Amino acid sequence: MTNPFVDDDAASVEATVPPFAPFSAEDAVEGEVVRRRGIYLLPNLLTTGALFAGFYAILSAMNGKFSTAAVAIFVAMVFDGLDGRVARLTNTQSAFGVQYDSLSDMVSFGVAPAVVSYAWMLNQLGKLGWAAAFIYASCAALRLARFNVQVGSADTRFFLGLASPAAAGVVAGIVWCGQDLEPSGGIALTVCLMTAAAGLLMVTNFRYHSMKSVDFRGRVPFIVIVAAVIGAALVVIDPPRVLLAIFFVYALSGPGLWLWRRYRRGLAARGESA
Length: 274
Hints:
Layout: H1 8-16, E1 24-29, E2 32-37, H2 41-62, H3 66-89, H4 95-120, H5 127-150, E3 158-160, H6 164-177, H7 185-202, E4 207-209, H8 222-237, H9 239-273
Antiparallel strand pairs: 1-2, 3-4
């Protein structure tokens, strides 16, 4: 007699697969799903590094080491920026890598910044503080889910909404710059508003340049190299403030460009009606 609650086919497959067999990743090849045993090592190792950095940021915040926590989030950004580029350069992209990267981003750039910000300053505001932290974390989850369903169909030159690493850069930069500030209601309220705003920018329809169209192997004007050297020197001189300034300006670029486009369309409309 067969058990109606057991899938015989699934049970037979499970019985033939060793419990510690390598992962089976699904890749889309010419419109068909192809199952391959194992996963690509290098890009997923970098993704694991980003995940560990985010996890370490949470642990550091729980132990009151807020500067270390903020630095760990920026380290996670470095790993996150490398894994995708390495995958493209080595032709090791996979559907598994996309999903793993998204889950890593949720920890490193969704949960970690919210926990760090709350443990550092938002806890001074009680329910309002944890509400702001939750708004940030939930918006990061929504942003990543929207990004996943748009993979392969969206314009890769732009992000729709602020990318989660950039939002995390704003929050981590605030924590790093203000680590020596004495907790107060005014400062806590400012951090609360900025944390919630960074989260909400992730789920807007503002367009942000993704920088993915930059060809690092091609020729660039000499001034670009000079600007890169100056930027690197500034980061070395004062990492917290310079990084916060970079991510803060980038976060404002979406609304700023939107307002600029509306202004230009208004001028064009008035010119046509004149």
